[in-house]
Design a protein that fits this description.
By secondary structure, this protein is α/β, with parallel strands linked by helices. It has a single domain, classed as Rossmann fold (3-Layer(aba) Sandwich), CATH 3.40.50. The protein is built from 8 helices and 7 strands, in the order βαβαβαβαβαβαααβ. Strands 3-2-1-4-5-6-7 form a 7-stranded parallel β-sheet, with helices on both faces.
């Protein structure tokens, strides 16, 4: 057997929400290097165009779609529009995110809805829109983004944590609904990585160092640390892995 072929994504199309920056862009980059055509989705059209240009400059296949996924209806509409342009979407990565970092008593209904909608409702409705089309072809991969906060609480992040806890169960529910049709669903659970959502940590060297010392690896993550798991979960190599949450956290949750 050619083992490399298990991880080859040549000919596959991947739709990646939150693909213009941070973890979403890192996952998109990994999938593109593995041979996939990636469609980046985010609300900032200028940032999207720049991200796609950076990938194309590396001779990778990349396109982009602008969409604000903070409303469930928009998420469903996004899948409809995507399928018009790209009739065979093989891989869905739900990586769009926001963390408003408000104290428990300061969270408003608007802030709650914004975070729950983007972090939990959008993955559900994106999956609802795309999974049936994957199932018709008997092959699909759905990758959700979990978090350290899927399993433990951090201050000033109650809506974010509630959403990420929900993502673990949504991943299981999606696997139960679609895996018999060849569509697997798993979640990646990043630890502390330098992204826009973690600026407050990495802007404070003392805090960043403290987080690093809480891991078994004694360091924080680099975005390249996500590449291997992303390609594994998107490829044939993971065909019998579904409903799982894989933590990529340097052992933070093990300590």
């Amino acid at each position: 057997m050619n083992m490399a072929s298990l991880f080859d994504l040549t000919g596959k199309t991947a739709l990646v929400t939150g693909g213009s920056s941070g973890i979403g862009n890192a996952v998109a980059t990994a999938l593109a290097f593995a041979g996939a055509r990636v469609i980046l989705v985010a609300r900032d059209s200028a940032a999207l165009a720049q991200a796609a240009d950076r990938l194309r400059a590396k001779n990778l296949q990349a396109d982009h779609m602008t969409a604000d996924l903070s409303q469930p209806e928009t998420a469903r509409d996004c899948t409809t529009e995507a399928l018009k342009k790209y009739p065979e979407i093989d891989i869905l990565v739900n990586a769009a995110g926001v963390n408003l970092r408000q104290s428990f008593t300061e969270v408003t209904p608007k802030a709650w809805n914004q975070q729950i909608n983007l972090l939990l409702a959008a993955p559900f409705f994106m999956t609802q829109g795309l999974a049936p089309h994957m199932a018709k072809r008997k092959w699909g991969r759905i990758i959700n983004l979990a978090s350290l906060q899927s399993f433990r609480a951090f201050e000033n992040s109650a809506p974010y944590g509630a959403s990420k806890g929900g993502i673990v169960q949504l991943t299981r529910a999606t696997a139960q609904a679609w895996s018999a049709s060849g569509v697997t669903c798993n979640a990646m659970g990043p630890g502390f990585f330098p992204t826009n959502l973690t600026n407050t940590i990495f802007a404070n060297p003392e805090l960043a160092a403290r987080r690093a010392m809480q891991t078994c690896a004694q360091r924080n993550g680099k975005l390249e640390d996500l590449y291997g798991c992303a390609v594994f979960l998107a490829s044939n190599a993971s065909s019998y892995v579904t409903g799982q949450t894989i933590m990529i956290d340097g052992g933070f949750t093990a300590c």
